[in-house]
Amino acid sequence: MLSDILGLQRAYSVHRYLDLPYRFATQVCWSACETDREQFWQRWGFMPRLCKRLSNTPLIWIDVLSGGEVMQIHSFVRELKSRMPSAMIVVSSNNQYSREVAQTIPDV
Fold first, then answer.
1. pLDDT score of 37
2. Exposed/middle/buried for 98, CB within 10 Å: 0-12, 13-18, 19+?
């Protein structure tokens, strides 16, 4: 069972890295939409605007896919904030709708 899960994770990782040149070309080089470029860099962990705001602040990064997942993290984020009040909580998504919904969460 565990070997199956590890095999799937490995296959997913290989697929993402092989897909990287195509995604870079379509979302960064050829896209006229600034949101596409920003989402590409966020998915790979590069967030310059966020890095400017951080000093020695603990960071909790939550990556969600759909608006439903964003709705489910409300209580999770509230609990995290109560236990770690100084932490900065960042929610990222590859979906514009999910990003808009995440911006309604008070502690994010």
1. 79
2. buried
Question: Whole-prediction pTM value?
Answer: 0.55
The set of residues, in sequence order, having a beta carbon less than 8 Å from that of 50 and lying 6+ positions away, is 90
- Hey, which residues does 22 pair with through a beta bridge? none
How far, in Å, CA of 20 to CA of 100, rounded? 25
Specify the residue for token string 């509230």. 78
Taking alpha carbons only, the member of 90, 27, 45 closest to residue 64 is 90
pLDDT digits (tens, 9 = 90+) for 75-102: 888 888 899 888 888 877 777 777 777 7
Grouping H, G, I as helix, E, B as strand and the rest as coil, residue 32 is: coil
